[in-house]
Amino acid sequence: MGFRETWAEIDLDKLERNYKRIQAYTNTEVFGVVKANAYGHGDITIARELEALGTPFLCVSSFDEALRLQTAGITQDILIFSYVSASVIQKHHHPQFVYTVPSEAWYASIQALNMQLRLHIEVNTGMNRYGIKDAAVIRDIVSNHEVEGIYMHFQSPENLEIGQRQLNAFEAIVTSLEKTVKWIHVGNAPTALIADKAWINGSRLGIALYGYRVDMPDLEPILTLNASVTHLDHIHAGETVGYDYTYTATTDETFATMPIGYADGFDVRNQVVPVSINNRNYPIIGKVCMDQTMIRVDETVNFGDTIQLLGPNRPAKLIHEATGIMPYIQLSTLSDRIERRYLRNQHVVSVIVR
Q: Which of 182, 243, 245, 317 is catalytic?
């Protein structure tokens, strides 16, 4: 166990159930998106679980994330979403690595390598981040290279009208190809648009694996974030708490300190949402500090009590509505200073500490 009384509990049984539910919702193979430290859940442990569940690809954002998984002993194929320079590929390529073709210029840059690379073309259907729009360019690449996959990324899982336009543009390009491509997959997709599309055989729904999607109501958030009460003290009316005198007690009060702050990914905007101790809500007082945060409590709170910061009593949706911090941000910014405890059958089976 770690030395700091701040930890996340990650339920691997819920991860498995979410994976199977996504398969059922989409009628596709589920690509295991583990970029950004598996959205804060711990990339290596989550990757091993998804590998065991049979995901055809683990998906990461960058080459260093792929290298980290491969070095840790992950053997599943790893699809890299973002640009990787030709020089990095030449020096550090591994057969597990599958590269995105993000542009015509990138494809031209790898021709001089004379390497057998596995490629997936990203089609830009409106996201305007990476990807190729020109159908003729895409057809030319497919004709001249054994392209393994082709994919697109939806701008929103909720706007079905725009989503349908994106899907139509993608389908037009796919059906125009003169060679068969093994994997045709979509990301951030509205499930209502893809569930009956037999020509799509893969989905990358990212945060859905971790329990968050408005169009899949039975998914289960797999992470709870907790800290312990590590200090209790009393203040008198007129005393202040924390930096810059932003909180002044109006009566004699008791406060608790918990060992988590903005350096851990506990955003300063969290101060408007009460935390939960023993199923009761308590307000954050003063500014969220770099390493600690203070709470106004009552006589029922004891030293060592567990504080729930993300979970059933303080859900991500509530935090989002009150602060504007999306679940993506709440999860993916959790720092590696936070201990990760992995559960199966409600028992801790492994622990990751920095």
A: 243
**What DSSP letter does each residue of 89-122 carry, written as one string?**
HHHH--TTEEEEE--HHHHHHTGGG----EEEEE
Helix 63-71 to helix 43-53 angle (10° resolution) is 70
CATH code of the domain occupying 31-210: 3.20.20.10
Phi–psi pair at 301, nearest 5 degrees: -90, 135
Catalytic residue (one of 14, 19, 35, 212): 35
* Structure confidence by residue, pLDDT tens digits, 221-256: 999 999 999 999 999 999 999 999 999 999 999 999
Is 182 annotated as catalytic? no
pTM score, two decimals? 0.95
Q: What is the mean pLDDT of residues 265-289?
A: 98
Q: Say whether 91 is catalytic.
A: no
Q: Where are the domains of the chain?
A: 31-210, 223-352
Distance (Å, whole) CA 222 – CA 213: 13
Give the Cα separation of 342 and 348 in Å (integer): 5
